[in-house]
Structure formats: structure tokens, C-alpha cells
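The following block was generated as part of the benchmark described in Methods. Ligand: arginine.
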Amino acid sequence: AAASLAASPEAAPATSQAIHIVDELVKHAPLYDVYRYDMAEQVAAILDVPVEKAVACIEVPSNTKNGDLSLVLPRLGLTMSPVAAAQKLATEFKLGTAFAAYKAMGPFFNLTFAEDHFRNALLPRIMLDSKSQYGHSSEGLGKIVVIDYSSPNIAKPFHAGHLRSTMIGTFVANLLNARGIAAVSLNYLGDWGKQYGLLAVGFDKYGSEAQLAEDPIRHLYEVYVKINTDSENEREALEAKRKAGTATAADEANSIQDQARAYFTRMENGDAEALALWRKFRELSIVKYKQIYERINVHFDVYSGESEYDLTCMQGYLEKLRAMGLMKVDAGAEIVDLNAFSMGVALIAKKDGSMLYLSRDIAAAHDRAEKYQPDQLLYVVGNQQDHHFRQLFKILELMGSPMAGKCQHLNFGLIKSKDGSMSTRRGKVVFLQDIIDQTQEEMHDVMKANEAKYAHIADPLAVADNVAVSSIVVQDMSARRHLDYEFDWGRMLSFEGDTGPYLQYAHARLCSIERQAQPLKPLATWEEIAATSGALTEPQAAALLRALAAWPDVLTDASVSYEPCTIVKYALRMSRDVSRAVEALYVRNQPEDIARARLTLFVAARKVLGQTLSMIGLRPLERM
Ligand code: ARG
């Protein structure tokens, strides 16, 4: 409609100004949307249905032989039969400049794009639109979403679940930002509870300042394992003595667990000395976490943690639960009975007055509401905690919390392996760092095998590291979130098939074409593109252009489902189309207009594939 209005010669100056704005907007709108609306406007007029309804019934057929857009007529719910409606459209639809052909196929009415119109509208959107990144939008401007992800526990292994949370959370943050939403990424560390009392007791016995400085995460874990073993042994010995009737009062008193409890009580009471040691553990761990996160391209706006919600802070929430009559006393403990909602009983305060993970999450949700005033709060946590979050959200609702109804648990399945841990060929690993290190080493070996290429890479270890991370991420994101998957070392290290290295390779190949084409430049204006893109006649070009045009739709789909596999599937499709196009369409030794048109296509593909990889947290590689 905008285009036909703009062509009207009698338009008054004021109107033409307005039309100019509309025209500009259409120039930047996602291309598939523009075509869908073009189609829907005519469909609406011919069949007498609302435009929005028609738009919702238009699909992109999986086989482009059937056209580029397909109207699924049964979904319109007309009184006329869908087949008759398709026939009516076939007699009345006007192709205009945007479409080249239509076809009524039973209950479907399909349109094929006019290739020149399509190319000339698409390429500038990717190459020339400096307003924003291609496919990004500002629809979410002004919205704030807090994402709680990664959230490992100090002195415990950074397990596979934390890794998945880290990767999915990063993707979700990128996705939100692409829609103009301010994503606040928050790492909610497990850094509070009796186990930190136990850790302090263990450190007293086994700790080494030197090792703590060297690798705090590993050392604290070692100390924790040792003291835990001691405590277990102590408990067993005491049991045996009790059975034999030889347990003395001294045996019964001051167990390791008692000491741990006492230490944690000091922490809860704000004892400066007890807190100083704990704070050191926490701070050194964060420094180390940051190094590893940097390696996997992950960043947080805020490091928070359970420790922010100590006993003092909890009092107000406990009071509120009591005052609202939600809390019941049960054998000395305080609970919220959620049986009416088939959610069992939620334990809030233990008999000894201590708080739990759930209690602290109640306080944390309120605190986030106050600090960030978010429109939404997302928790990226494994589905073992489904029950926990159902209880949490219900309690927030019952309390009338400002976050009620705004929380969502983005859950995911387990990474399975034979013995339940993430193991590599060399055995069980518990540290994220080890997983990356071992993958990197193997990648480096694969790279070294190709000596000629290897010689050109400036920093092979950095590249190997990047490829290693890509393969971990892509394996993780290949299937839908909720599914468990088997950590498959063999598949992960493969450069072929649906893997991270394959995607990086496609990107590096496009970069190489660009390097080798120098000093040739891609087409740089709407006019140049309109004059020259006609050289892109091959089916491989048409297929790649369609893949490029699909990116905004992919982002929209992913924004609804928060499924990273949507992006991975698209990246694989792109990479396959890139590979076919690269093999068919040479840039070197071609007439200049053909060379420039093809180079433009490849630069556009490099930009979009680069964005796609960045969206799932990868760093696109220029050489590998
Ligand atoms: N630290 C927890 C764990 O490792 C995850 C925390 C998730 N976030 C939350 N607000 N509960 O299981």
C-alpha cells in the first residue's frame, strides 16, 4: 500500500513527507513480513477477512518448489470451501512487482517471489542498513528482564547442569538484547549455608594459602571433599561406638558437623572474623570463574548470591508469611502448605531456625523486584528443580509479591553419561576448565594434522580453544532444551556433520573469500545493488538468499520458545547453503559485475552467519 501511495503524482507535500517516512520504515522492516503483508492485503480484500487474520495463515513452505509463501486456507474458517477460495484468489490476485507467480494447490494458495525484487530488497537490508543489526528490532525497548543463570556453588563442582545453564542463559540474554530488551544477567552463587561452615573447618585442617591463590575453585573443592570424608568417617565410627555402648560424652560432643554448624552460626550473626575467611573464598572463586567465563565468552552484569539473604534479611519475609496466615508450625519447623495446589509442603524455616534454599529464593525474588523492577524474571535451571520453582512461584503469588506472575523457569534436561558425571576419554571430570582444556587439546591435534593451513594461523591455541568451545556449545544446543542428551565425545570432536567446527568452518571460508577478493569491494548502494545483483542467477544464490531472508523470522520464533536449537538449526542450514554457493559461484577470475554481485552475497552471508554464531555465544572465526 505504501509503495502505491508513494507513486501517486498528485500527493501534496505534507502527505509525501508522511509517505516518505512510511517508505523508509518499509525499507527496514523484515522482508518476509513485507511480503506477507503485501499478500495478506490482497487476500483480505478478495476474501473479505481481516488483514491480521490472513497474515497469521501465511506460511513459508519447506519446499520452495511450491513457492515462497503459502496461504493455508482451511485456517481462515471461511464459509466458502478452501479449494473454492484458492480458485477465487487465482482469478483475482494481482502479482504486481513483488511476485512472479501464483498457484492454487488444493486448499493452498502459493506465491513465488519475483527474484529481482527479492534480491534488491534483501541485500540492502543486510549490507546497508546502518540503523541496527540485520534482524534486530526495537520492539522490546523499555522492557527489563532479569536472567538468573549459571549460578554455581562455591566449593562444589561446576557440573554439567551449570554449564548448560550458562550457555542457555547467555543465548537468552543475547536474544533479548536483539529485541531491544535490557537483559540483566545475574549469577546467583551458591555461597551460603552450613556447608560454608564445613568448608572453613576443613580449611583450618587442610587449607593452603598458596593453593588457594593458585586455583581457588579446585583447592576449595579438594578441601571440601576431604573434610566431608572425615565427617562421614567420624559419624560411622560414632555409630559403631554407640552400638557397642562405648561412646563417651567427649565422642558425642564437638563433631565436625557441630563445628561447621557453630561456624556458620557465627557467619549468620555477622562475626567479622568468620566472614572474612568466607569472603576470601568467595572473592577468589569469582576471580577464577570470570577467567573461565571469559574463555567461553560469557559475561555477567551482577554477581549476587544466596549470602545476600542472611537471617536478618529473612525476618521481614518470615513476618509477612506469618501475618498473612500462610505459615504453619509443623513439629517446630515452619512450613507453607501447598497441598491445595498439589505442590506438597514447602519448608521455610527448620526447627533450629535456619533457612533453606527456597526461603532465600523468596527473599531474592522480592529483592530483584525492588532493585531492577523487571518486567520478567527468568531462571535458567535444570528440570530437577521444577518442583522447587513451582513452589517458589506459588508462594510469591500467595504473598502478592510484585514478581508474582512474572517469573518463568526456563528448564532443561540432563547431560547424561555412563556414570552420571561428565566424563571424557581420560575419565571423570568435575571442572569446567578440564572439559574445555581436553577438548581444546584434541582440537589442536586435529588442526596440526593439516600442516599447510596450520602454518597460516597466527595463534593456533586460541583458535583451538574457540573451536573447542564451539563444539561444546553446539552439541549442547542441537536438541530441544527439555531433552536429556548423551555427552558424545566422538561427535563433539568431529569437524563434519552438525557440529560447532562445521559452522565455524563455513564462517571462516566466507572470510577467506572476502580476503582473497581484495581489492574488490561489495556493492555499496541501493542503486548499485539494483543495477548489478541481476548477476546472481544461479539456484545456489537463490537458496542462500532465502536463508538470509529467514533470519528475522528465526529470531522471532526463538523469542517465543527460548529454544537455542532454533538458532543452531538455522546456522546449519545457512552453512550448508553457503557451502553449496561457494562451490558453485566463483568470485575470482570473473567479469567485474558478476564478481562484485557474488562477493556481496558472500559478505551478506558472512554477516548473518556471524550474527547467528554470536547469538548462541560463539566468537565467529576468521581463519581456522
Ligand atoms: N546454585 C543452584 C544450584 O546449583 C542454582 C541456583 C539457581 N537460581 C536460583 N535462584 N535458585 O543448584
